[in-house]
Amino acid sequence: MDEYLPETERISEILPRLNDSLFIPCLQRDYCWNQNQIKMLWDSLLRGLPLGSLLIWDDEGEGPRREPAYSFLQHYVDSRAFSFEDEGHIRRYSQRYDFGDIPESYSLVLDGQQRLTSFFLSLTGTFTTRRHGGWVKNRGAWNQRKLYFDLLSGDQSGEHDRDLVYEFRFRKSGGLSESGDRYWFAVSRLVDDSGELTTDSFLEKDAFLDETIPEVQESVDSAEHERVESNLKRLWWGVNRREAILCERTLTDEKTARELFIRRNKAGKMLSGVDILLALLTGYWKKIDEDGGPTDAKKQIEQFTESLSRDDDLTESGFTFGKNFVLRTLLLFSGERPAFRANGRYDGDDLREAETIFYDDQFEQALRDAFELSSEFGFHNGALSSKNVVAPISQYQYETDTSTSASGSAIRYWLATTVLNGVFGNIGTERVLKTARGHIEESDSGRFPATEILDDLRGSGAVVQLNSEVLDELLEEVDYRSGARRNVLLTHLYQNRRAGHKEYEVDHIFPRGKLGDEAFLREMGVEPERIDWFKDNRDHIANLQLLTPKENQSKSDRDLTDWLERIDDEKVESIPDKGEYFEQHRVPEDPDLHEYQNYPEFVERRLDLVRNRLETKLPLKETL
């Protein structure tokens, strides 16, 4: 890796190189500075404060360069909701260049993009924001503004109460304010209006001052003439004479450049492994869009996840999808490590293979089929510890292109075992997915290799089977706070009710609050030495049932005996009689067990009823 001695450059020297021979690499995050950060940058420039350094990755000069290059934004809008076709020059995101549109040799900014973009749009472009409460489809709700400098600011006495000495603001127009205490001057006047930014575009000092000083002094009080002249000179000096930007340059290979970028940016907003992977995919994918330009992979993946999340069947099961799951699944299918690498050391060929898979219609179909099948088996969104549990099923469907009907029992066993035992959390997502991938790629049995995968994970410190013995342990361990595991058990307890789904709510048969109320329990005849047991076991799986929202509202925190009386009195529309309630919810019929002092016996008896039901409904290994 070759290094150069750092050099200082003026803003007027480096800005003309933007989008000409100096570009943004695919790894860089989107432009994200707000207007206050830009104002502070300009204040620092005029005060002579440090602006930080740039790190530029130069071309090694061995043939045409092929690292993806993105544009610096000139007209920026801070919301993706801006969508007016006749104003396509106003952008939220940088655009990727086709290699035919840029020089064969060019440099990329590894650190400093935010500052360079801020100076670029301040001097030559605009910053657009949406008015608070404005309708996104109304163009009038969007304020497109240029940066202006208050020529009457500059109090360096230290007595002002503002963070900034020199005041800047994004405005529609300039001139003297109505109060007469501010004069707003467009910083873009430092540059001529030729439309193309070159080193010759920046006005010479005499020409700039001769044009602006008389104009401004004519509008302000004579007492401010000296301040106006001083500020105009300082503004010109900051852009044209101050060697404000320290440039470090490097010649290195692609993977080391990524690592340099990540290390340099640790002091700022950290990029996650997902951010890094998305940026690299965006840079390396080759598909051409309708306009003949390179497709933005990040945008494509976001649209893909939105499409999945809008699917009626998947939405009915409560599924929503994010880019993390789609990206990890692409890594899994392409043979890569199914993990997000913080060092960005991915191979470009692997990233291009992921593109081939992503645009294969079978990829999306495999995901849809796998999640629909999981939901049919009772594993809707609330009954999955992670969507990664479904990824191997998707890969099996994608790799084999066969019906999953022959694998129904094996897939149900995989889902139940991994979720109830917390296999992914206890062993680690990457290891489980890699193990599953190996068996899926080697499988020729015509069915999903659930037992083979789980057997291979033995010895990892986690339970990897589901049988009667494991079920007994789960019934003692899982309670109201157990999330997906609770939802799996309760869902399989019923014929057509799903725990964790919006249509049903988890209710405590004996009200939770009353089981934790010592005074109430004493009043109900509970012996003092048993009260702690009542408190500790109020969330027991045997005290939980699934009710519709309307049923739950009717029951509220009523005692079980009062609830049963309401059913007898036909005040619960959806439950015709107590017999059906007992049968549907597996609640013991013995009225003595419905009294608080007999709650331990109720738990024991209902646990037997729950266990008997789950032994027939869950895919225990003995039944495979």
UniProtKB/TrEMBL annotation:
<dbReference type="InterPro" id="IPR011089">
    <property type="entry name" value="GmrSD_C"/>
</dbReference>
<feature type="domain" description="GmrSD restriction endonucleases C-terminal">
    <location>
        <begin position="469"/>
        <end position="560"/>
    </location>
</feature>
<feature type="domain" description="GmrSD restriction endonucleases N-terminal">
    <location>
        <begin position="19"/>
        <end position="281"/>
    </location>
</feature>
<dbReference type="Pfam" id="PF07510">
    <property type="entry name" value="GmrSD_C"/>
</dbReference>
<dbReference type="InterPro" id="IPR004919">
    <property type="entry name" value="GmrSD_N"/>
</dbReference>
<protein>
    <recommendedName>
        <fullName>DUF262 domain-containing protein</fullName>
    </recommendedName>
</protein>
<dbReference type="Pfam" id="PF03235">
    <property type="entry name" value="GmrSD_N"/>
</dbReference>
